[in-house]
Batch of 3 targets.
Target 1
Amino acid sequence: MPRRCSASRDSAGAMNSASDSDRILREARQSLSLQRAGGRRRSIGKRSAELKCRHAAGKLARMALAVIGILVAAMVAGLVIDGIGFTGIMATGLAILAALYLFGRYPRLETPALPALNSGDVRSMVGRTELWLEAQRPALPAPAVRIVDQLGLQLDQLGLQLEGIDPSQPAVREVRQLVGEHLPGMIDSYRRIPPHLRGEVRAGSTPDQQLTEALGKVSGEIDQITRQLAAGDLDNLAIKTRYLDYKYGEALVEPEKPA
């Protein structure tokens, strides 16, 4: 009878341990899906969401490897000592829970440092800048936050356009300086102002108003650069359309079906 009770407890412990592991892994997969959608706090752009998703995927992979490693170690120990018993099952379950908790929380996705924003390729620069801007949103006034959200979409589009351009071009250097240096530098200067002084009028306007106005100018400048970069593609499309129309004429037009 005692053996039967012991076996029952071992079985129950194994089921509880497996249930906890399944639950935590399920929550980890849900967290990964959430990161793919932009995280708990909505990402301002696709590049920052991409970095979050990559970070979450790395966490999930480490958690899965840790669980597999612990289970394999428990199986080997069971074979060597002819069973690990109830205590071993509980220890295995606790080890799995500890590993999932540890690898689920660490390493955390750190906000990029200000000097590191304007480095690497354009795709990386845009992603890091978006992550940095997201981290600054809670400290910004509401009108500025709306412009920052708009900047995320603009940066995504601008990054796509710059990927096919020679990095040594003056336009690329100008964009990198604007996005990777001037924009974050301006927000960083604002954040160094004590909160109780940000609403005080100075030189005809408050720091809150000055920041919002400056961000609006940056947004307008990015829009202008996007239009300039797209001008060549628009002209090429128009030329190709006229060429096809000239060469094939009405052949491109589907003939009307008889009634």
Target 2
Amino acid sequence: MATEVKSAVFELPALTYSYEALEPYIDAQTMHLHHDKHHQTYVDNSNATIAKAPELAEKTGEEILANLAAVPEGVRGAIRNNLGGHVNHSMFWSIMGPNGGGAPTGPIAEAITKTFGDFAQFQERLNDAGLKQFGSGWTWLALSATGLQVLSTPNQDSPLSQGLKPIICNDVWEHAYYLKYQNRRAEYLKAWWNVINWAEVNKRYEAALKK
């Protein structure tokens, strides 16, 4: 993933599946515009901003977002919005895939059951957080010092900036779903579970536990 490379230049990560691979739940046109246009803009703006603050060049995107207070005030807003958009979307693409969905397995399944009671209750919590997020933003499952928690963030804000470790994310900006679902965000949130890649989620969860 580009954000793991210690470089001043961030790159758009290539999708590991085709634009149409998430049909019928996420349409090919949305994937094309979302990845190639929206995400590319965040990458371009991140690089332009990093060029104004070369002291950040040796840090990963995740490291920068985890310590926004250390970012020069003059570029902090641009970093929060654009680098946040890059890191958030890079994670988003990675935890989706064709032939996904179903109930979770492995360590994350056990953790979800322990924390939320069962998978259905967890789905309801995450969907509700996404539905109630006013305007643009994201809904998350993140790991804190005390365990898993569901939250939402506005715009391109990251749980990393709150000291949390993101495990699952869903994009509730209108550009993520409007071509197919129009104003039916609840329908999109429900359909999205059919493309989640539980193997990748487990990798993220196990890595977060070790940090």
Target 3
Amino acid sequence: MQFVEANGAKIPSIGLGTWELRGRICARIVEQAVKLGYRHFDTAQIYENEREVGEGIRASGIKRDDMFVTTKVWTTHFAPNELERSAKESLVKLRMPYVDLLLLHWPHPHVPLAETLGALARVKQMGLARHIGISNFTVALIEEAVAACPEPLVCDQVEYHPYLDQTKLKDACARHHLALVAYSPVAKGRIKNDQTLAGIAERYGKTAAQVCLRWLVQQNVCAIPRTSRIERLSENIDIFDFSLSGEEMAAIGGLATGRGRFTDYGFAPKWD
């Protein structure tokens, strides 16, 4: 496994996203992922599966300290006292003494960012989270957050895949030594019929998804693909035995279009 280092955090390059995984299926997939070598798991309060993610990790028998677990605070809990309370609630559900990374899930225009970040920093200072970060923040919001936060932020988790150009965001993260963590890294499955990716995949005896994930990892980006299928789990982590050439990296980067964003909501910020 490779790692991305950012402001003191050492984040495994490939993790398991758990959005939409529920109940026993979620716990079983997490347990199986650990057995296949995954050490990075991503959940969130709004996913309503923190309990099952914790169960799956415990069932694997691997020590908690060998895992990297991320959860995210939902926007309705951004008032300072509420953020601390909800972080403790997440730990109760996970049955863990701390998370490795606690993120603000989306920016919230109606709660002053400095207040929310102050509370997030306190959660870290209390030992409830080893590291803190942000998710779905634009370049301008990254600048504002880094300036306002009393503790170092370690990442911005955003949608990123070959169809969405995130160069500006990646540059902003690099300026502030933040990791970029990519959700929907295989474009919600849309890459499987892509001829460019298929052609490259054929050269290496890999799949389009593996090429896509390799493209991210070679940019020093962490990727958290979600799957509910065991065979896909092993495929997604089997990307460390080949390297893409500069030409291949550029060809994949050239797939970006102006319509490449697949996760967008009415409350989203004005994207870069």
